[in-house]
Amino acid sequence: MGALITPMLLHKGVEIVGAIARSPTKVGRDLGDVAGLDREIGVIVEDDPAAVLASCSADIAIVSVGSLVGAMYEHFRRCLEHGVNVLTIEEESLYPWLTSPAQSAELDEIAKLNGVTLTGSGIQDVYWVQLVSGVAGSMLEVESVEGRAQWNIDDFGPEVAQEFYIGRMPEELEQAVENDSWYSPTVMNTLHALVAALGLTVETSDVRVTPIVATADVRSATLAATVPAGRVLGLVDEVRLVTREGPSVEFQMSGRVYDQPTDVDTNDWLVRGAPAPVRLENVGYSTRALTGSIITNRVPDVLNAQPGFVTIDKLPPSRYRPLPLAHYVRW
Amino acid sequence: MGALITPMLLHKGVEIVGAIARSPTKVGRDLGDVAGLDREIGVIVEDDPAAVLASCSADIAIVSVGSLVGAMYEHFRRCLEHGVNVLTIEEESLYPWLTSPAQSAELDEIAKLNGVTLTGSGIQDVYWVQLVSGVAGSMLEVESVEGRAQWNIDDFGPEVAQEFYIGRMPEELEQAVENDSWYSPTVMNTLHALVAALGLTVETSDVRVTPIVATADVRSATLAATVPAGRVLGLVDEVRLVTREGPSVEFQMSGRVYDQPTDVDTNDWLVRGAPAPVRLENVGYSTRALTGSIITNRVPDVLNAQPGFVTIDKLPPSRYRPLPLAHYVRW
């Protein structure tokens, strides 16, 4: 994801002053090279975050590593304590207030102490919250919101594939779900953000996770390995929330290694209620690429925000940025 | 439209203190009766706007009469000078700055002098601006935006049908277009609002208006008359704007008297550019009914806005209002 976002930031006039990675295949190389550009940009990818943060005077760090606040806590803290704003695609941070309230409050305090902002965004921000709550904003009464989306595990890093049990036995995933030790924030925290955008409050939640099992051997690019038939190729993560006010909100997300040439990302939402149900469908949208461009467009919003852990419910809607990003920043 | 919006406002806890109409079929009757409710609400529809505005201490007037700022100027001025905020479905007011700059500046000044706000909204606000600019807000580069929508003339008042030359000879409409004496703000001013939402500026505009001619006699409910074969049943209004920054924005809107049971309102937008083109489609949406609910949801935004002629580019996105509208007003 860092390699995807690098040329987008450069295209919008951002000066990249540092790059951090863990993989030995990236560390020590020029970022332009790692990002697949046809030129070097004079920034060497390093593996010591503290050293990079101390040596460059960055306004903002784009952080894409894991999917949970707990796993990302030290990464975020380190950036914030160096006075660097953080914009992350880590999914729980889209709206972490119900799932990691203590750590989120701590990060909020650290951010405020250092006068910087921490925000989570990505495809969820626009396509699963902003547009869906926009449709709801056209309605008199919302009875329910039902979303369905599909994306390709291979479009993201190997950490995501591992979190999704890709290549493991279906029973392992089922066991983890049964033991409550498997948790994907992609759907749950998106719905928490959506419920907040609708002005509602979560009362109960139901989660149903179903493995998608490979019926033949499938090559996974992100894992650089073959998923044998009978192993986990992906999963369907369904969450249904009932709000205290009555309306229910549900989202069924299928994330898997695409194995058919016709597989495409889909996004389809139905808002039921009065005066009439409205469906919202996006054809041609790409979960991965649009995550990169949404992150790019969000940079000025994070730099302009009040200090703290500022979730998207406190930000203006994501906007198109025809000019270099610096133009939109109130320095 | 007033009859449509009345029960929506009541449903959201709004106290209606006055009602104004011109039609002798409405004046003198209880508003509940005129709006088709099963009860009287104790508000008699009157035809003297000044008397109604003077006798009731209203916070806001919902104004739905004509489609142009010029035609509505006196109505708006009267409300504003009585210290009453105005929320209107009059289409030019969605973004009148390029088409009626002098009158809009005057209304802005009158509103500010009286400490109240004037805003235009309706289906355009959410479905042709907010959602479309939301999709653009997910993209790195926008090359073009192309919209297509279809709506039923019979869903609106007879003034709209008259403005659209329904029942007249196609040559009359063609002549009016040729003489530049026909102008529909529905498409043009929507695109002006969209271009503003994209952070772009209009450079050139092309308009193409094509009559839709009845091939058989068609009954128009709003005209309470039959449109004979060979007469204007509707029209296709296409506008294409090129912006100074490069991207083009076009919208083709077909408004006609529906004559087939399968006719439905459609809304379909394609945003071309990088990283990939994205299509936005709404199935099941109703131009008329959603105009009513969007107006209802916008009431708190207008009451909370700064005084002046405040167009939607200066307002937060339209939001769902689960609670009575008064809950969202900063009194």
Q: Which structural class matches the secondary elements of chain A?
A: alpha/beta
- Tell me which protein chains meet in the greatest interface and how many residues each side has: A-B, 52 and 52 residues
Query: What are the secondary-structure elements of chain A, in order, as H or E?
Result: HEHEHEHEHEHEHHHEEEEEEEHE
For the secondary structure, the number of strands of chain A is: 14
Helix content of chain A: 25-40%
Largest sheet of chain A: 6 strands, mixed
Distance between the termini of chain A: 27 Å
Oligomerization: homodimer
CATH architecture of the largest domain in chain A: 2-Layer Sandwich
What is the mean predicted local confidence, pLDDT of chain A? 96
What CATH first level of the largest domain in chain A would be assigned? Alpha Beta
Q: Write out the strand line-up for the largest beta sheet of chain A, numbering strands in chain order.
A: 7-10-11-6-12-13
Radius of gyration of chain A: 20 Å
Strand content of chain A: 25-35%
Can you tell me the residue ranges of chain A where pLDDT is under 50 for at least 5 consecutive residues?
none
Per the CATH scheme, the topology name of the largest domain in chain A is Dihydrodipicolinate Reductase, domain 2
**Number of alpha- plus pi-helical segments of chain A:** 10
